[in-house]
Amino acid sequence: QPLVFYKDSNGRVDIYLKVGYNKLVFLKENNFRVAKYNCKITIINEENDSIVIVNEFEKKIVESELNDEKLHFFDFTLKSFNLNNGTYIISVKISDLNSNKFFSKIDRVTLNYSKDSNFYLSDILLLNKVASNNDKIKISPIINKHIPFFKSDSIYTFFEIYSNQNQECKIEINISRILYYWDKETDFVTMYRNIDIYSQRVWDIVNYKLLSTSIIDTVLKGKTNQFILGTPFNIQPGNYLLSIKIKSTDGKELLQKS
Known about the structure:
Radius of gyration: 21 Å
Order of helices and strands: EEEEEEEEEEEEEEEEE
Number of helices: 0
Shape: globular
Largest sheet: 5 strands, antiparallel
Structural class: mainly beta
Strand content: over 45%
Helix content: under 10%
Protein backbone atom coordinates (compact mmCIF):
# COMPACT_ATOMS: atom_id res chain seq x y z
CA GLN A 1 0.00 0.00 0.00
CA PRO A 2 1.61 3.31 -1.07
CA LEU A 3 0.76 6.48 0.91
CA VAL A 4 1.82 10.07 0.29
CA PHE A 5 3.30 12.25 3.03
CA TYR A 6 5.30 15.48 2.93
CA LYS A 7 8.45 16.41 4.81
CA ASP A 8 10.70 19.47 4.69
CA SER A 9 8.82 20.83 1.66
CA ASN A 10 9.36 17.58 -0.23
CA GLY A 11 6.97 14.83 -1.22
CA ARG A 12 7.50 11.35 0.21
CA VAL A 13 5.90 8.06 -0.72
CA ASP A 14 5.80 5.40 1.99
CA ILE A 15 5.30 1.86 0.65
CA TYR A 16 4.02 -0.63 3.19
CA LEU A 17 4.72 -4.28 2.37
CA LYS A 18 3.26 -7.25 4.21
CA VAL A 19 4.16 -10.79 3.07
CA GLY A 20 2.28 -13.66 4.66
CA TYR A 21 4.21 -16.69 5.85
CA ASN A 22 1.52 -18.88 4.26
CA LYS A 23 2.47 -17.44 0.85
CA LEU A 24 6.09 -18.55 1.14
CA VAL A 25 7.83 -21.93 0.95
CA PHE A 26 9.92 -22.76 4.03
CA LEU A 27 12.78 -25.21 3.54
CA LYS A 28 14.72 -26.99 6.23
CA GLU A 29 18.24 -25.69 6.87
CA ASN A 30 20.01 -27.45 9.73
CA ASN A 31 17.47 -27.29 12.54
CA PHE A 32 15.55 -24.31 11.20
CA ARG A 33 12.80 -23.54 8.71
CA VAL A 34 13.92 -20.84 6.29
CA ALA A 35 12.05 -18.75 3.72
CA LYS A 36 13.67 -16.30 1.30
CA TYR A 37 12.11 -13.79 -1.04
CA ASN A 38 13.16 -10.99 -3.36
CA CYS A 39 11.26 -7.72 -3.62
CA LYS A 40 11.63 -5.33 -6.55
CA ILE A 41 10.02 -1.87 -6.38
CA THR A 42 9.86 0.15 -9.60
CA ILE A 43 8.54 3.72 -9.66
CA ILE A 44 7.69 5.20 -13.07
CA ASN A 45 6.86 8.81 -13.91
CA GLU A 46 3.52 8.50 -15.69
CA GLU A 47 3.95 11.72 -17.69
CA ASN A 48 7.05 10.64 -19.62
CA ASP A 49 7.16 6.87 -18.85
CA SER A 50 10.61 7.23 -17.31
CA ILE A 51 11.82 4.97 -14.53
CA VAL A 52 12.85 7.17 -11.62
CA ILE A 53 13.51 4.54 -8.92
CA VAL A 54 14.37 0.85 -8.89
CA ASN A 55 14.83 -0.60 -5.42
CA GLU A 56 15.53 -4.32 -5.02
CA PHE A 57 16.23 -6.25 -1.83
CA GLU A 58 16.05 -9.74 -0.36
CA LYS A 59 14.58 -10.89 2.95
CA LYS A 60 15.28 -14.05 4.91
CA ILE A 61 12.90 -15.46 7.51
CA VAL A 62 14.21 -18.01 9.98
CA GLU A 63 11.96 -19.95 12.35
CA SER A 64 12.91 -22.73 14.77
CA GLU A 65 9.56 -24.36 14.09
CA LEU A 66 6.63 -23.75 11.78
CA ASN A 67 3.17 -24.46 13.15
CA ASP A 68 -0.35 -23.44 12.16
CA GLU A 69 -0.17 -20.33 14.34
CA LYS A 70 3.01 -19.05 12.70
CA LEU A 71 1.54 -19.56 9.24
CA HIS A 72 -0.69 -16.58 10.10
CA PHE A 73 2.38 -14.38 10.72
CA PHE A 74 3.56 -11.67 8.30
CA ASP A 75 6.91 -10.20 7.37
CA PHE A 76 6.57 -6.41 7.36
CA THR A 77 8.72 -3.87 5.49
CA LEU A 78 8.42 -0.10 5.11
CA LYS A 79 10.24 1.69 2.27
CA SER A 80 10.22 5.47 1.82
CA PHE A 81 11.12 7.43 -1.32
CA ASN A 82 11.37 11.19 -1.89
CA LEU A 83 9.69 12.25 -5.13
CA ASN A 84 9.01 15.48 -7.00
CA ASN A 85 5.47 16.56 -7.81
CA GLY A 86 3.74 14.39 -10.38
CA THR A 87 1.85 11.15 -10.89
CA TYR A 88 3.74 7.89 -10.55
CA ILE A 89 3.07 4.23 -11.27
CA ILE A 90 4.39 1.97 -8.50
CA SER A 91 5.09 -1.65 -9.36
CA VAL A 92 5.97 -4.16 -6.65
CA LYS A 93 7.02 -7.74 -7.44
CA ILE A 94 7.75 -10.29 -4.74
CA SER A 95 9.45 -13.54 -5.79
CA ASP A 96 9.71 -16.57 -3.54
CA LEU A 97 13.34 -17.74 -3.85
CA ASN A 98 12.47 -21.25 -2.64
CA SER A 99 9.91 -21.80 -5.39
CA ASN A 100 8.82 -20.40 -8.74
CA LYS A 101 5.97 -18.38 -7.23
CA PHE A 102 5.79 -14.62 -7.47
CA PHE A 103 3.25 -11.94 -6.55
CA SER A 104 2.89 -8.48 -8.04
CA LYS A 105 0.84 -5.35 -7.58
CA ILE A 106 0.59 -2.03 -9.42
CA ASP A 107 -0.70 1.21 -7.91
CA ARG A 108 -0.70 4.93 -8.66
CA VAL A 109 0.09 7.97 -6.49
CA THR A 110 0.02 11.71 -7.11
CA LEU A 111 2.14 14.33 -5.33
CA ASN A 112 1.18 18.00 -5.62
CA TYR A 113 3.00 19.83 -2.87
CA SER A 114 3.32 23.63 -3.08
CA LYS A 115 5.12 25.96 -0.68
CA ASP A 116 2.55 28.65 -1.52
CA SER A 117 -0.34 26.69 0.03
CA ASN A 118 -1.25 27.27 3.68
CA PHE A 119 -1.45 23.60 4.55
CA TYR A 120 -1.72 20.03 3.23
CA LEU A 121 -3.33 16.80 4.32
CA SER A 122 -1.45 13.52 3.96
CA ASP A 123 -2.95 10.20 2.94
CA ILE A 124 -4.73 8.18 5.62
CA LEU A 125 -3.14 5.15 7.26
CA LEU A 126 -5.54 2.75 8.95
CA LEU A 127 -4.30 1.22 12.19
CA ASN A 128 -4.98 -2.17 13.69
CA LYS A 129 -3.52 -1.38 17.11
CA VAL A 130 -2.13 1.59 19.04
CA ALA A 131 0.09 1.06 22.09
CA SER A 132 2.12 3.34 24.37
CA ASN A 133 5.51 2.37 25.78
CA ASN A 134 7.83 4.74 27.68
CA ASP A 135 6.11 7.82 26.26
CA LYS A 136 6.50 6.42 22.75
CA ILE A 137 3.54 5.44 20.63
CA LYS A 138 3.73 2.21 18.66
CA ILE A 139 1.29 1.70 15.81
CA SER A 140 0.40 -1.41 13.82
CA PRO A 141 -0.77 -0.42 10.32
CA ILE A 142 -3.48 -2.16 8.33
CA ILE A 143 -1.82 -2.72 4.96
CA ASN A 144 -4.62 -4.28 2.96
CA LYS A 145 -7.86 -2.39 2.48
CA HIS A 146 -9.58 -5.78 2.50
CA ILE A 147 -9.87 -6.47 6.24
CA PRO A 148 -11.02 -10.07 6.81
CA PHE A 149 -11.27 -9.78 10.60
CA PHE A 150 -11.66 -6.65 12.70
CA LYS A 151 -11.53 -7.20 16.49
CA SER A 152 -12.17 -3.72 17.80
CA ASP A 153 -15.02 -1.38 18.61
CA SER A 154 -13.10 1.56 17.14
CA ILE A 155 -11.26 2.25 13.92
CA TYR A 156 -7.97 4.14 14.28
CA THR A 157 -6.40 6.44 11.72
CA PHE A 158 -3.01 8.11 11.39
CA PHE A 159 -2.52 11.19 9.23
CA GLU A 160 -0.55 14.42 9.10
CA ILE A 161 -1.56 18.02 8.47
CA TYR A 162 1.16 20.37 7.26
CA SER A 163 0.62 24.01 8.15
CA ASN A 164 2.81 27.07 7.56
CA GLN A 165 1.18 29.02 10.38
CA ASN A 166 -0.74 28.57 13.63
CA GLN A 167 -4.46 28.29 12.96
CA GLU A 168 -7.60 26.88 14.51
CA CYS A 169 -9.58 24.29 12.60
CA LYS A 170 -12.03 21.42 12.87
CA ILE A 171 -11.26 17.81 11.91
CA GLU A 172 -14.31 15.87 10.75
CA ILE A 173 -14.12 12.08 10.35
CA ASN A 174 -16.96 10.40 8.48
CA ILE A 175 -17.56 6.67 7.97
CA SER A 176 -20.13 5.68 5.34
CA ARG A 177 -21.40 2.34 4.12
CA ILE A 178 -21.00 1.97 0.34
CA LEU A 179 -24.10 0.50 -1.26
CA TYR A 180 -23.88 -1.13 -4.69
CA TYR A 181 -26.92 -1.57 -6.92
CA TRP A 182 -27.25 -5.27 -5.95
CA ASP A 183 -26.54 -4.69 -2.26
CA LYS A 184 -29.12 -4.56 0.53
CA GLU A 185 -28.40 -2.60 3.68
CA THR A 186 -29.10 -5.64 5.86
CA ASP A 187 -27.11 -8.09 3.73
CA PHE A 188 -23.49 -7.79 4.88
CA VAL A 189 -22.36 -11.28 3.92
CA THR A 190 -23.44 -11.96 0.33
CA MET A 191 -20.61 -10.06 -1.39
CA TYR A 192 -18.11 -11.02 1.28
CA ARG A 193 -18.13 -14.62 0.04
CA ASN A 194 -16.83 -13.67 -3.39
CA ILE A 195 -13.34 -12.16 -3.65
CA ASP A 196 -14.21 -10.72 -7.08
CA ILE A 197 -16.36 -8.10 -5.38
CA TYR A 198 -13.26 -6.15 -4.38
CA SER A 199 -12.69 -5.19 -8.01
CA GLN A 200 -16.17 -3.68 -8.43
CA ARG A 201 -16.46 -0.47 -10.39
CA VAL A 202 -17.16 2.98 -9.00
CA TRP A 203 -20.19 3.44 -11.25
CA ASP A 204 -21.85 0.41 -9.63
CA ILE A 205 -22.27 2.46 -6.43
CA VAL A 206 -25.81 3.75 -5.92
CA ASN A 207 -25.61 5.33 -2.49
CA TYR A 208 -23.55 6.15 0.59
CA LYS A 209 -25.13 5.67 4.00
CA LEU A 210 -23.49 7.85 6.67
CA LEU A 211 -22.88 5.75 9.80
CA SER A 212 -20.61 7.84 11.99
CA THR A 213 -19.34 11.42 12.28
CA SER A 214 -16.74 12.72 14.73
CA ILE A 215 -15.67 16.36 14.97
CA ILE A 216 -12.55 17.50 16.80
CA ASP A 217 -11.52 21.10 17.44
CA THR A 218 -7.77 21.63 17.31
CA VAL A 219 -5.07 24.25 16.83
CA LEU A 220 -2.54 23.57 14.08
CA LYS A 221 1.03 24.64 14.69
CA GLY A 222 3.21 26.04 11.92
CA LYS A 223 4.82 22.66 11.28
CA THR A 224 3.94 19.01 10.71
CA ASN A 225 1.00 18.04 12.92
CA GLN A 226 0.50 14.31 13.51
CA PHE A 227 -2.81 12.80 14.55
CA ILE A 228 -3.86 9.34 15.76
CA LEU A 229 -7.61 9.29 16.19
CA GLY A 230 -9.97 6.53 17.21
CA THR A 231 -13.54 6.60 15.97
CA PRO A 232 -16.12 4.39 17.76
CA PHE A 233 -17.56 2.07 15.17
CA ASN A 234 -19.41 -1.24 15.30
CA ILE A 235 -18.05 -2.63 12.04
CA GLN A 236 -19.63 -5.48 10.12
CA PRO A 237 -18.56 -7.14 6.84
CA GLY A 238 -19.16 -4.84 3.89
CA ASN A 239 -17.70 -1.93 1.92
CA TYR A 240 -17.00 1.38 3.64
CA LEU A 241 -15.65 4.84 2.87
CA LEU A 242 -13.66 6.70 5.51
CA SER A 243 -13.13 10.41 4.83
CA ILE A 244 -11.33 13.14 6.75
CA LYS A 245 -12.29 16.77 6.22
CA ILE A 246 -10.41 19.79 7.52
CA LYS A 247 -12.71 22.75 8.08
CA SER A 248 -12.27 26.31 9.25
CA THR A 249 -13.85 27.38 12.52
CA ASP A 250 -16.85 28.75 10.60
CA GLY A 251 -17.43 25.37 8.92
CA LYS A 252 -15.87 26.06 5.50
CA GLU A 253 -14.34 22.90 4.00
CA LEU A 254 -10.63 23.36 3.29
CA LEU A 255 -9.17 19.88 2.66
CA GLN A 256 -10.46 16.34 2.25
CA LYS A 257 -8.98 12.85 1.90
CA SER A 258 -10.71 9.48 1.78
